[in-house]
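Subject: Sanity check before I submit

Could someone independently write out the structure tokens for this chain? I want to compare against mine line by line before I put it in a report. The sequence has 268 residues.
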Amino acid sequence: MTRDEAAARRVGRALGNYLSTWAVPFAQIIDSERALGMRGEEYKDVAKDPTLEFGSTFEKEIKRPFDARGFTTSAAEEAALPARERLFQEKSSRVGSALKVGLGLTLRTQDSEEGEYIKRLGLTEFELGSTSKVPSIRRFENAQLRDIIPGIVDAAQAYEESSRDTYKGSPELQDEMTEQEFVNSRIKPLITTQIKAAKKQLSDGKTVMADAPAYIEAMTAYRRLPSDIRKNAASEFLLREGRPANGGDVEDLFALAEYGKALRDAYK
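---
Independent answer below. Compare away.
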């Protein structure tokens, strides 16, 4: 991104957000259309890839908040936009737009169990998600990260169980901190470093990495296993390797998939 383009993004976005506040009364019309089924409730991504031109970028950033609220897009145009990719929800949607029209309540679909687990540790989607300035790359990264998060959480939960046992057997740790503080001190860095490693496998923020297909293949092989098998595979990996599996590492993912398949076959 050039310096001029970065400046255009900052100024255009600030001005667009300010101007869009004047159009808030019109939002009820859009919400009514959603309540009546005339518009979809799924959140869409209106951001467009950069063009490197000041004027074009400035215009797009001014228009962006209006597009996001549906002020400047028809129902058909909105439906054709790409979905907003979230880390903790496969399909992020509004819920009960009629309640927003009548009572002013804004509801949306619930985060996944893995997302709720991560949030309880004090980590946010904003911290962990893609930081790419290119919307198409950001959507790609977030969609792939969402798929790998269950595996990372499996490894984290297996490590959490081991960490709690370590804490209970250490009077020194018990004098120094609470059990949850000790668990968080181990699990939070595990999750953040593995997601950071996964991002590096996927893209450099501007283009998709050449090795991304191999990483996605390894992740998919593990993700196809039933949830209970995945959790057992993560525990088995920890026992055999003496460390939590790294969800950002291709070899670890393939190893987890093999452990899982062996466990699945043993249960038959």
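---
OP: Matches mine. For the report I'm noting this point. Residues 217 and 250 are 9 Å apart (CA to CA).
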